[in-house]
Amino acid sequence: MGTAVSWPLTDNGYAVNLIGTHLDDAIIDSCKKDRFHPRLKRTIPNAVTPYHYNELGQGLQDAAFIVSGVNSNGVRWIGSALAPFVHKGARIIAVTKGLEAKADGMLVILPDVMRAQFPEQVRDAVSLAAIGGPCIAGELAGQRQSCVYFGSRELSTAKELREYFRTDYYHVWTTNDMRSLEIAVALKNAYALGVGIAAGMLQAAGGVDASGAYMHNLAAALFARGCREMHTLLLSQDADPEFAYSLPGAGDMYVTATGGRSVTLGRLIGTGMSYERALAEMTGETLEAAMVIQQMGKALPAMVSKGIVQKKDLPFMHFLVDLVVHQKPIDLRLDDFFQDVISE
Amino acid sequence: MGTAVSWPLTDNGYAVNLIGTHLDDAIIDSCKKDRFHPRLKRTIPNAVTPYHYNELGQGLQDAAFIVSGVNSNGVRWIGSALAPFVHKGARIIAVTKGLEAKADGMLVILPDVMRAQFPEQVRDAVSLAAIGGPCIAGELAGQRQSCVYFGSRELSTAKELREYFRTDYYHVWTTNDMRSLEIAVALKNAYALGVGIAAGMLQAAGGVDASGAYMHNLAAALFARGCREMHTLLLSQDADPEFAYSLPGAGDMYVTATGGRSVTLGRLIGTGMSYERALAEMTGETLEAAMVIQQMGKALPAMVSKGIVQKKDLPFMHFLVDLVVHQKPIDLRLDDFFQDVISE
Questions:
Q1: pLDDT at A344
Q2: What is the CATH number of domain B180-335?
Q3: What is the tens place of the pLDDT at every residue in A145-197?
Q4: Which residues touch A333 (CB under 8 Å, ≥6 apart)?
Q5: Hey, which CATH number is domain A180-336, 3.40.50.720, 1.10.260.40, 3.40.50.300, 1.10.1040.10?
Q6: pLDDT tens per residue, range B83-103
């Protein structure tokens, strides 16, 4: 995604410096050699200049803003790496999806984790922003229609940054509620993994039957439950629950469930494989979904004991924690997943 | 679906009389001959007795309740057909999805359309129920995990009926808010057609590109927009907006967008085909989604002029009405689809 945003930026006439981490040398080598990005399988735009990590200082020179595209394991690292270069008024867009849990059950968004790595004297004078919404990087790079939110605690930052990016295919709305945006976008990965379990259960049951029956009904019920629980979790975090049902929640979960790593991991677990074995099958992949579930495994007991959620209100997340953290076998108690609805 | 519910019913030990309409003679012939249901591609359970339409009276004898599985064109017809047989205390479950619009912009659910056909002296003494939630009939017949709501204005009716159906694979919750349930379930077909347009636009753009880019980002944005607009429309109808985000709304739209007729029609229109031509391609198919959009085409001007919705709050439904009712070419103004979110 860090590279994919080069397309709208260069289409708008801006120059982009693309800096790999120390893990991206092969990608940057390829970009330098013949301008081909092997992950996106595309020739990068002319106005993109690739840099190796050891050229970081040069690549950052005179940048109007920085886009950080590391994975969620790399957030502290990129904070430290950028620390010597950030100055008061610097603007950083974090596209990493994830969250961390505090001991009291409150969730911390990754831009704030990154910020904590910056020198104290500039820390609060750096403007952070985040992007959320259904946007597969390869499609953005292919200039396909995509709709996202830019969030920043200062609305002006989100609005200024949006002007660099918006094109007739990249549609950007803004919010000053970056925390709600980021929590929704992180949770959707966890629940998309959960939706993927249906495909694995289908496989374990022998696949599509002779009459053509899949397990889409189950996947859809899990999807709906994911929407409800994102709403509940956002509320518990004093965040705006509406993000559960818009581009960052339902929309982003929809596109993630259509493909992607989270749903593949879910499918493997759904076949009956333990989380550890499923993880081993996916060596080299970044599994943001699993990391979010692990953090929720820390947060949930504290959230329940503080009374900001009730265990019965989050059966799906507890199920996911049982699978991923406690490596229990699949025990999907669907009867607990919804409730009768009585109106007065 | 009328046939598919035989599986949970017979698994619970009940006998089912399966009565075809005059259009279903070939299906019933097949069921009588070798118990094979050609549409579901399955052998029907032993406890199902198939009846032709001319055996209606015999088939209805001593029925504890009736399940009506006609399509939305057939709702008045089935009401008239059942009229001689309904009595005070009769219970009818309507699985048809659709709605009708009144001149004042208020939406009428199909169970009430059916009820109006019954003799006046029993009309109000018949208990009607409806089923909503993500449930592909072929999967229910395959005893796949499925989660639905049973709705009836009398909660006791929904609860009594549920007891006949619930099994370890058919999970049923109840609501006394049948109208909200039915509106959500009807609207989801319309919006699923809209989600399908992305696949057609992809086809028109030459398909998946050389780097593997689909148009899933667009489909997901449309999906998210559909969720929002179901919420807005439910509110406008004094209905419970939460149904937009649960099994009947988001969940049912998810499973419909995964396959099914609505999304196929959307795909055809998305390629640039007029609605009429797309319809011609799908001869013989029941297109509940198009019928809902046509009804919304009647309702929207009245709703807007009454001030219960604003045109700008329903850009996606207006777009769908333009395509299906006014047969305009595709003009997807995504910039109108979402708004900045400012929290205090």
A1: 79
A2: 1.10.1040.10
A3: 999 999 999 999 999 999 999 999 999 999 999 999 999 999 999 999 999 99
A4: A315, A319
A5: 1.10.1040.10
A6: 999 999 999 999 999 999 999
The pLDDT value recorded for residue B40 is 96
Domain boundaries of chain B, sorted by first residue: 6-176, 180-335
Question: Which residues, 6 or more positions from B7, have their beta carbon under 8 angstroms from its beta carbon?
Answer: B45, B140, B141, B143, B170
Span A188-205, pLDDT tens digits: 999 999 999 999 999 999
- Report pTM: 0.97
Confidence of residue A284 (pLDDT cuts 50, 70, 90): low
Q: Please list the ranges in chain B whose pLDDT falls under 70.
A: 284
CA distance A83 to chain B (A): 30
Residue with tokens 């004991």: A305
The architecture (CATH level 2) of A6-176 comes to: 3-Layer(aba) Sandwich (3.40)
The answer to whether B245 contacts A252, with C-beta atoms less than 8 Å apart, is no
Nearest to B217 among A219, A255, A339 (CB): A255
Task: Give how far Cα B239 sits from Cα of A107, B38, B236, B308, Å.
Answer: 34, 38, 7, 12
Supply A249's token pair. Answer: 């929640």
Residues A235 and B49: their CA atoms lie apart, in Å, by 51
- B218·A142 Cβ contact <8 A: no
Helix intervals (H) in chain B: 6-11, 25-34, 56-60, 75-82, 110-115, 120-123, 137-141, 155-165, 178-204, 216-236, 252-258, 261-270, 275-281, 288-306, 315-324
